[in-house]
Structures are given as C-alpha cells and as structure tokens.
Specification:
The chain contains 23 helices and no strands. The protein is mainly alpha-helical. The protein folds into 3 domains: 20-224, Growth Hormone, Chain: A; 230-286; 300-545, MFS general substrate transporter like domains (Growth Hormone, Chain: A, Up-down Bundle). Helix 16 (296-325) runs antiparallel to helix 17 and helix 18 packs antiparallel against helix 23. The longest helix is centred in the C-terminal third of the chain and has 39 residues, at 422-460. The chain is globular and about 85 Å long. 47% of the residues are buried.
Length: 545
C-alpha cells in the first residue's frame, strides 16, 4: 500500500458558519417553475440517451463494419462514465460552483453528442460516448439539488414531479423513439437530436440559474484555503464503479464467471469499492460524503431508490421484449404498449406532488410499493393468448404504483439532510437509482436465459415416442400439416417442429413469469422499511434546516 494511503490528510479549517436566516429567506430571482423546466430539458435528453441507442445497435454495427457484440461498447462506455461522475458531481459543484458545473456538463454533453453523430469509426464513437457520459452524468444530481434549493419545502414535491417525469418516462420511450428515428432517418440522428435541446438548455440556464448564498460561501471558503483533493477517493470510486458497470453490462454476453475478463473486472471492482468506502469514511474532506447514509431517512431512501431502479428498468426491458419475441409484436407496437404507462405517470406525478402536502411521505411510499408489487404479480398471468389491451393495462397498473414512489422517496430522503449537503445527497441518490437500473437489467437478462433453459428442458423431457399424449398430438398436427407434403416436407417432421416451437414459446413465457414474480417479491419485501423512517410532517422538508 502506498505511503500516501496511510497518512491522514491535513485537517481542513472549520467551515464558515452558515447564515441560516439568509438561507431561509433566499429565493431565486426568476420564477422557480421556469427554472425547473429549463434544467429538466437537458436531464431528460441525458436519461433518454441511456436507452435510445439500444435498438440502433445492429445499424451501428453494420455502419461501422463491426459485430453486434463489439457495438455493445457504445452502451457500456456511456454507462461506465455516467456511473463514475454521478457520486463526484457534488464535489465538483462545490469546487466550480453549481451553475458553472451544470453549464459545463450541458456543453460537454451537447458537443459530444455532435461528435457521436459524425464519428467515422466505432473506436471514436465509443470514445465520444465516454465523454458524453461524463457530461451527462452531472446533469441529474445537479438538477435535483437545484430544485431542492430553488423551491421551499412545501413545494418540493411538485418540483420533484417535473424531474420525475423526465427520469421515469425517458427510459420507457427511448427504445421506441430510437427505433422510429433509425427506421425513418439514420442512427446518427439519435445523437443529433440532443443538439438543439442542449443549446436551448444552455441559453436558458445561463440567464436563469444562480448559486444560493450558502453554496457561494462554501466555495469561497474552499478557494481561500489550501485545496486538498481526495485523489485516492476519486481513483478508487472510478475504478470500482467503472468495472462494476462493465461486469453488469457484459456479464451475460461473456458467460459471467466463465470469462476471465469478467472475473478480473469483478475482483477489481469489489476491491476498489471496499477501499473507497473505508477511505471516504476516514478522510477529512471526502470527494463522496458517505456519512449521509448514517441518516436513517436518507439511507433507507437510497436503498429504496436502488430497488426502484431495479424494478423500473428491469420491467422496462421485460415487457417490450416479451411482446416482441414471444407475441410477435413489432418494436413500434411493443413501445406503444408501455408508452401508455409513461403517459399515466406523467399525469399522476403532479397529483402525487400535491398529495405530499397533505399526506406523510412514507405512507405514500408504502402505497406505491404495494401497488407496484401487486402489478408485478399480476404480470405473472401473462400468456401467449393475451391481447394488446391486456399488456397495456398491466403496464398502466404498474405505472400507477411507480408514480407514488419517485417523488415521495426523494422528498423523504432530503428531509433531514443539511442544506449544504444537497449536492452530495443528489449524487448518491442518483447513483443508487442508476446502479439499481444496471443491476435490474443484468439480473432479468440472466434470469431469462437460465429459466428458459430450465423450462424448456422440463417441457421437452416428455416429448418421446413412449408418450401417448405426444403421439396423439403429433398425429393431429400431421393431419393439419398434410398440405406441406406438396412442398417436399414430411408432415410428421413438420408436426415435430411445430410442437417443439410451441414448447420453446411456452418455456420463454414461463421464464418471463419467473422474472415478474421475482421483481414482485423484491418490492413486496420493501414495504416494512417505511417503518424505519423518521416521521416527516406533510408539507415540511429538510427539517434539519
């Protein structure tokens, strides 16, 4: 271990006392709702970019003369850099000023989107996606902390509703929008559409945003003293989260522990994260303030947000994939089935924001967990005989529960966080959701493959000549397919193929049902956690202020 690791960093001077009265009466110069809309624009596009490129991968691979497996680095590279910058965003906001940091992220995200659109090779595209992920990763936590400071506690629920619309609906419409753009234009336009939104966001935020007094004071204090940069914290957090994202994104494709690359990546990630946690609790001025997790409300909220990411993105992958691979729907039809759920969330989030002013947040979280869990168990009734309306209503049922989760979890998380910790809290809560989403996608993808193999083995083990039921079914199918003989195919062979394809289809359906059942159990087990949270009066927030 390097000697620098064994040395305690020099103790920083005590923070300047916060003028609580000045902070309490501070309000932005412009209407808070205009500010909320302005900062949500770029964040919406950033969240959209985590999923919009998925359906375009075959086109990207073909255009770059690469395999689809190589093209997946377009997704992985963005997620890796995005995960690295999320927990560091609070530290950068204090170092540069939150307005400067947010605008810098918008500039980096917009320019890199243009570079991605004109990239001539896959290697350059992956490099530009890494830069795009670094720029985009700072937008979500910065917006959340801006909203927390811009709005008084009684309006914070409604403010988070606007943010929630972007975060919850963008992953749902991303694949559909990406497919439509790719089919009607070219895959490069999935990056070019970010440019006008980024320019508009940069123009608006340059005039509307301002840093609150406490943030200005803290930044000036840091600039006047010797700046001790937590280099080891940055290095180990980057290594831990970066390799974790690679493992989650590439694990199933590379056969998990059967791949030396995945084993080495997992060991590097685990060792780096363990040391990062130890170091960040030990150092005097950590780049990521993990001490926030000691607060009961924030710790439970971060865990709930992690599981919300698991279920939200996991189910967003499962439903359209089931409709396309098992039911034979087109990408547009599958996207339409889940888009209605996104529309319902958009309509319900403002209502939930208003409800937070009258009902304690943890009870709303309990309602959301119960409804979402019930909706996931309802999805275990999916079958090959269901229609479009059944799938659409099931997604809407789930969306009704998700609407009761995002805003209350965020509001309760900030209830006892000191105002000068808003930036650090935003980075951690967003990191929890993003890592949860990656874990959810990786888990359901792996479980689908394993359970489909299991069910197919069980369903086909009785398909032998010794089974009278199988023989009878083969005979009926042969009679039905007797016309195939005219095309040179024996009816008996065609019947065997038909029965086998049906068994494979049923095995796939059962594997999806297993995934929905697991996600439903996860959310059902979360309900008791609301009783571990401290009570927060409706319409009140950030009581520690």
């Amino acid at each position: 271990m390097p000697a620098a690791l064994s040395e305690q960093p020099s103790k920083q001077p005590a923070a300047a006392p916060v003028d609580h009265f000045q902070d309490a009466v501070w309000r932005p110069k412009f209407n808070p709702w205009i500010i909320a809309i302005a900062v949500t624009l770029a964040s919406f596009m950033e969240v959209l970019d985590t999923s919009i490129a998925n359906v375009a991968l075959p086109h990207i691979a073909g255009g770059m003369s690469a395999s689809e497996d190589e093209a997946t680095w377009v997704l992985t590279s963005y997620l890796v850099s995005n995960a690295i910058i999320l927990p560091l965003s609070g530290w950068f906001s204090l170092l540069l000023g939150r307005k400067r940091f947010y605008m810098a992220c918008v500039v980096i995200f917009t320019l890199s989107s243009f570079l991605c659109g004109i990239a001539p090779t896959l290697g350059l595209l992956v490099l530009f996606r890494v830069i795009q992920g670094f720029g985009g990763g700072g937008l979500q936590p910065s917006e959340q902390s801006i909203l927390a400071d811009t709005f008084p506690p009684r309006q914070r629920g409604m403010a988070f509703a606007i943010y929630g619309i972007a975060v919850v609906t963008a992953p749902a419409i991303g694949p559909t929008l990406g497919g439509w753009i790719t089919d009607n234009f070219t895959w490069r336009w999935i990056f070019f559409i970010n440019i006008p939104v980024g320019i508009l966001s940069l123009f608006l935020t340059s005039f509307l945003l301002e840093d609150p007094p406490y943030l200005v004071k803290e930044r000036m204090r840091r600039l006047k003293t010797k700046l001790n940069v937590d280099y080891w914290g940055i290095i180990f957090i980057a290594l831990g989260l970066g390799f974790l994202q690679v493992v989650l994104d590439k694990g199933e494709r590379d056969d998990w522990w059967g791949s030396p690359f995945i084993r080495v990546s997992a060991m590097i990630s685990l060792a780096s994260l363990i040391f990062a946690v130890y170091w960040e609790f030990k150092v005097k001025d950590p780049v990521v303030d993990l001490s926030l997790l000691k607060d009961r409300n924030f710790g439970v909220a971060a865990f709930l947000m992690f599981n919300l990411g698991v279920v939200l993105l996991g189910s967003t992958v499962l439903i359209p994939q089931f409709l396309q691979t098992v039911m034979g729907y087109s990408a547009t039809q599958a996207g339409a089935a889940i888009s209605w759920g996104g529309l319902l969330v958009m309509c319900m989030l403002p209502f939930v924001g208003l409800l937070l002013g009258k009902v304690e947040g943890r009870w709303l979280i309990g309602v959301g967990l119960f409804i979402t869990s019930a909706a996931l168990f309802h999805m275990t009734t999916f079958s090959t005989d269901m229609d479009f309306h059944y799938a659409m209503m099931a997604r809407c049922f789930q969306a009704a529960g998700l609407a009761f989760l995002f805003i209350p979890i965020n509001t309760v998380a900030y209830a006892f966080v000191p105002r000068n910790k808003n930036n650090a809290a935003s980075g951690l809560i967003n990191l929890a959701r993003n890592v949860g989403g990656s874990v959810g996608i990786s888990a359901v993808t792996t479980l689908l493959v394993r359970r489909q193999q299991f069910h197919q083995a069980r369903l086909t083990e009785g398909l032998t000549a010794m089974n009278s039921t199988f023989n009878a079914a083969t005979g009926r199918a042969s009679q039905t397919l007797s016309g195939a003989a005219a095309h040179g195919t024996q009816p008996s062979l065609a019947a065997y193929g038909l029965i086998l394809r049906n068994a494979q289809r049923q095995a796939a359906t059962l594997s999806y049902i297993d995934c929905f059942w697991l996600l439903g159990c996860i959310f059902g087990c979360m309900v008791p956690l609301i009783f571990f949270m401290k009570k927060v009066k409706p319409g009140r927030g950030m009581a520690a202020h």
